[in-house]
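Q: Structure tokens for this one, please.
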Amino acid sequence: MRFPMKRASLPLSLALAGMLAGCTLAPTYHRPAAPVAAGYPTGPGYAHAPKEQGKPVQGPAADVGWRDFFQDPLLRRLIALSLKDNRDLRVAILNVQALQAQYRIQRAGLMPAAAISGTETAQRTPGSLTTSGNKAITQDWQVGPTISWQIDLFGQVQSLSKAALENYLAQRDTRVAVQLSLISQTATAYFTLRADQELLDLTTRTLKAQQDSYDLIKQSYDQGVDSALDLSQAETTLRTAQSNQAQYQRQVAQDLNALVLLVGEPLPADISARLNRARSLPDDALPLELPAGLPSDLLERRPDIRAAEHQLLAANANIGAARAAFFPSISLTGFAGTASNSLTGLFMPGSEAWNLVPKVNLPIFQGGSLLANLDLAHVRKNIQVATYEKAIQTGFREVADSLVGRGTLDDQVSAQRKLVQASQLAFTLSQQRFDAGVDSYLSVLVSQRSLYAAQQGLIATRLARLNNQISLYKALGGGWTEKSTPSVPAAGVPAPGVAPAMPSS
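A: Here is the predicted structure, written as tokens:
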């Protein structure tokens, strides 16, 4: 009667072990409080009146698709190409796939492992060790399925599986962060190219005017009308413009090289032709007015903050695995098949065989390694807490910087435009006074230099305003979708601690 009792108790034992395996010793997770203010800074520098060409958006800025935010058709094509072929983004995608596979491997430890095995055991015993005094040769054959299972009684495997899942989710959010950075870098490189092209065009026109002025002064000097000082000052202005022209030619070429690297392939011929024809920086390329929302929105909208929290959750799960290492581990190994001392008898009636080998391992003395491993798990969690809090502070600072930039750069551009107008008027008046013989040509040169510097400053300020808008869009988590979407968790990532649907292992 012993065999039936054993067979009946086996399913009950497995069921009880499975129920106990649902436990875990990981600490209950509590999201750390955000170490930033409840609202963004306010004050004179943050006041912002929406641009006339601006169109307010509904919902969080993170849900504004990049095709709706970037209005320039050429820039849209460049961004689409970079999302397809950029190598940094490709590596980030492959890293996600690698961690997904690691999670599936770790999760497989929760399930029994089954295999079909066949073994032969041959043994020769010398006659001195046998009762008959003759040597003995024995052979045993065994074929059948084997099953092995480590019963996760205290949740060690489950905790490790949870940690692997959180690492996968963190990498998936990191991939989104790489995408946002790539879009931002591509747009910044594009506008930098357009600004340098406008500066080159401005310098070329200025150089021509200064060459004409120098030729005029040289002619007057040769006739004894102007002094050597006037000639040297005119030449100084001319050589400065020539130096600037060479500088901007170099910068335009380097800007194109930067775009090629970001795109990940040589630019198509039609795009290169359109870029070469461009001569100005488009001020209306980013017409949308982005609502900043609240700092608490960053916790769900910024992929780098979400990634940091998933890393924190992984460290929390590793504490559970370290705690479980102090308790006994139980593994079961079973076999059910046929056995015989001859190959031909394996499948004969009466050759059925089975065995069940439970194994319990209770740690008694490990030299303090288990306690040290638990301490290490706690330290690593504290590191991840600080990393998560730093990510929140960094996101808060980036948004605040972009907001103060938005609040001041419009005024700076307006003031710079007025400076250009005033410098243009001063140059016109000084030219008229020189033509009338009232002033020397020195006043013309001074006003011409001031006008050139003011025009350069205006282009640089307009570029800074566009780059600030891009920075605000990225800082708020925008760019993870191509088209604007309703308000949903960014990138379709579930809230921290919630497992997504995974491929079957």
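A few notes: The two ends are 41 Å apart (CA to CA). Residues 156-222 form the longest helix (67 residues).
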